[in-house]
Specification:
Distance between the termini: 18 Å
Strand content: under 5%
Number of strands: 0
């Protein structure tokens, strides 16, 4: 994703503040939103968990996927998700504590979960992350840092995806395509506003407006996602500033 005019930091604007979000829905298996919350949990965190496991244990791709499934099965079987208390910290930090605990579990228990153990199998959709740390000597790689990097990359990509889907659904896809051509291209340098104006048959001013609007929608999606897993409004603000610089 290109930098410069498309930076996801920027001017101040109103955003929703912290809520229990999907984490709250995980606390009651009988609740109507429980299944949807599980889907959100897996979609948002399976790749960071998989990456942590690959680096921490130097596992193969398939073994790491099996153990990722086992971790989520263990979460459900151990009832750990119901014990999350937002007032004591953000959900991501809590999940990493559980992941470290899982890593320390007896190998026999992990293999039982890998085979199913009667636990629900959850869907891990999408390709596994390509981890630079595993292309050479992974001995010095920090699984915590890998988890954080993959988590942020996934958060950004899912936020962009939601904005793209909404643009298609509401008939505003051309506006997103302008942003896509400018910020998501494979070239080293983004095209100029004039080039985009000529390509899409609009004015430079309309290009600027489209880029600004889509950028703000992505920022809104990011902020909303962060608010669902932060333990407090202060933590949300600290996270927002630390990750996105605004």
């Amino acid at each position: 994703m290109s930098t410069g005019d498309t930076t996801l930091g920027g001017g101040e604007r109103a955003f929703p503040e912290t809520t229990l979000g999907f984490a709250g829905g995980l606390r009651n298996p009988a609740a109507a939103e429980y299944g949807r919350s599980l889907e959100t949990l897996c979609a948002r965190y399976w790749k960071p968990v998989y990456s942590y496991i690959r680096v921490a244990w130097a596992k193969s791709n398939e073994d790491a996927k099996d153990l990722t499934q086992a971790f989520f099965a263990w979460l459900l079987e151990d009832d750990a998700l119901r014990r999350y208390e937002p007032g004591r910290g953000g959900f991501r930090a809590y999940l990493k504590v559980l992941l470290r605990r899982f890593v320390g579990h007896d190998e026999r228990d992990r293999h039982r979960l890998k085979r199913g153990g009667g636990a629900r199998v959850l869907s891990l959709e999408g390709d596994a992350p390509d981890l630079p740390e595993l292309r050479g000597d992974a001995a010095g790689a920090d699984p915590e840092k890998v988890f954080e990097r993959v988590w942020l990359e996934e958060l950004v990509q899912q936020s962009i995806g939601r904005v793209r889907d909404r643009a298609v659904r509401t008939g505003k896809e051309p506006r997103f395509r302008i942003y896509e051509a400018f910020a998501l291209g494979s070239g080293q340098e983004p095209p100029s506003y004039a080039d985009l104006a000529a390509r899409f048959g609009i004015t430079v001013g309309e290009v600027e407006k489209s880029l600004y609007t889509v950028r703000e929608e992505i920022r809104g999606e990011l902020r909303a996602a962060l608010s669902q897993s932060a333990g407090s409004d202060r933590e949300l603000e600290d996270e927002w500033k630390r990750l996105l610089g605004s």
